[in-house]
Design a protein that fits this description.
It contains 15 helices and two strands. By secondary structure, the chain is an all-alpha fold. The protein has a two-stranded antiparallel sheet. α2 packs antiparallel against α3.
């Protein structure tokens, strides 16, 4: 299966396609709910309420900031169309005789949204949901020590700057999407479901947060050693995986409509590929943890399932079902091994596993698009996009977060971490009827 060339698709969206895409985008927030539950379940019980409130607050902050600033800079046009949000041209410079569209120039404060083309309205809604999901990802990695105010501030930075920049490059006629037109590199950089703009961005942001905030108290008592701090509720994490499946199906199919301009006949295969990728990843992680530990690990299986969904975000609308299954198997094998490697070899304390799940699996999905695509040059286009993510977006996110940490310190004070984020920041715990922790690691 190959992506549809933009020139072969009529520019007008039919009523039926519009209705289908709108319904899908109304289901897409279930992916946000799923990730929120996974973040909470994989954290500690004494921070559960703060974690879930933080997820909700981050969604609200990103929606407000993206409406005020981000949407103007993103430019939610269809891939291959050089016009930005609601028909406004982007900022372009010329280099080596080629145009490089690097930033959107949409109207301020969503003016004229009601009279915009249907495609632009739906694309904008897609981006609102995408930026919320991207901002939730690092919140799980900073669990049990990241202050709520700092998490909201970091989300505002992502929604106002980095996400709009990357979304314009990929989805709104920016330079990455134009690699095919300008340099004959396949269809240009392809990311219909947000593997780059949502998951790799979120995973790299999680890495920046972990670097800046440091590890939880007691996680690495001595160099070369790691203490297990298991999540407090595997049921939350596993149920979150089921919710996430529905949201991912909606994101991937809606993304195929908006960014690949796929015909209706291609959409069931996109949905099937999403399921197969997640299923293959779960099967692989189940087997790896069964071999590695003697029994399957519930939290790592949840991580594997989510990694399969993340990998499908790039590839579900482009590859065949067998290829989607293979992509999921690789993601599922790699995820538990990477989680262990990052913790033991690099001393990365990532409670939600977001770096392995979102950053690495997202990069794998983007690479797989180039490997399996039939268009000449598509692999190079995908590699250029990956290089931009690692060489530009990661340093930019780290720099912005490092500066933000100077103004709004990320890490809670030691006493707050000792008693738990719920009591310290909210004045009450999520489970007041139970004794929810011991302080052995603080003695």
């Amino acid at each position: 299966m190959t992506p549809i060339a933009p020139s072969s698709i009529a520019p007008v969206m039919t009523d039926a396609t519009f209705a289908l895409c709108l319904v899908l985008l109304l289901l897409a927030p279930l992916a946000i709910a799923g990730v929120a539950l996974i973040n909470t379940g994989l954290g500690r019980s004494r921070s559960a309420a703060q974690s879930l409130l933080g997820n909700l607050a981050i969604v609200a902050v990103t929606a407000i900031v993206f409406a005020l600033v981000g949407a103007t800079l993103a430019g939610a046009a269809l891939t291959g169309n050089p016009l930005g949000t609601l028909g406004s041209a982007g900022h372009t410079f010329h280099l080596a005789g080629k145009p490089w569209n690097w930033l959107g120039a949409g109207p301020l404060l969503l003016r004229g949204l009601g009279s915009a083309p249907l495609q632009s309205q739906l694309a904008l809604l897609f981006e609102f949901l995408a930026v919320a999901l991207a901002a939730l990802i690092p919140w799980g990695s900073g669990a049990d020590r990241w202050r709520l105010s700092a998490g909201c501030a970091a989300s505002a930075v992502l929604a106002a700057t980095v996400f709009p920049l990357l979304a314009h490059w990929v989805w709104a006629g920016g330079w990455l999407s134009q690699l095919g037109v300008n340099f004959s590199l396949g269809q240009g950089f392809l990311d219909p479901g947000g593997a780059a703009t949502v998951h790799v961005l979120g995973g790299l942001s999680a890495l920046a947060v972990v670097w800046i905030a440091g590890s939880r108290k007691g996680k690495f008592p001595k160099e070369g050693l790691s203490t297990a701090l298991p999540g407090h509720n595997a049921v939350y994490a596993l149920f979150g995986c089921l919710l996430a499946l529905v949201g991912w199906l909606a994101f991937n199919v809606a993304g195929a409509i908006l960014w690949l301009r796929a015909p209706l006949a291609a959409l069931p295969v996109t949905a099937l590929n999403t399921l197969l990728s997640a299923s293959g990843a779960l099967a692989a992680t189940f087997a790896v943890t069964r071999i590695r530990f003697g029994k399957p690990d519930a939290s790592l299986c949840a991580n594997g399932w989510l990694a399969g969904l993340v990998a499908s975000s790039a590839a579900a609308g482009i590859v065949s079902p067998i290829q989607a299954l293979f992509i999921g198997l690789i993601a599922g094998i790699a995820t538990p091994l990477l989680v262990e490697l990052l913790e033991l070899a690099v001393s990365i304390d990532d409670p939600s596993g977001a770096i392995s799940i979102h950053a690495v699996a997202g990069l794998w999905g983007l690479l797989a698009v180039g490997i399996f695509a039939s268009q000449p040059g598509q692999l190079i286009a995908q590699l250029v996009g990956i290089a931009a993510l690692l060489g530009v977006i990661l340093p930019l996110v780290y720099l912005l977060f490092w500066l933000l940490n100077r103004a709004v310190p990320f890490r809670v004070d030691p006493d707050g971490e000792r008693i738990g984020m719920d009591l310290h920041e909210l004045g009450g715990g999520a489970y007041p009827e139970f004794v929810i922790h011991r302080d052995d690691s603080y003695r």
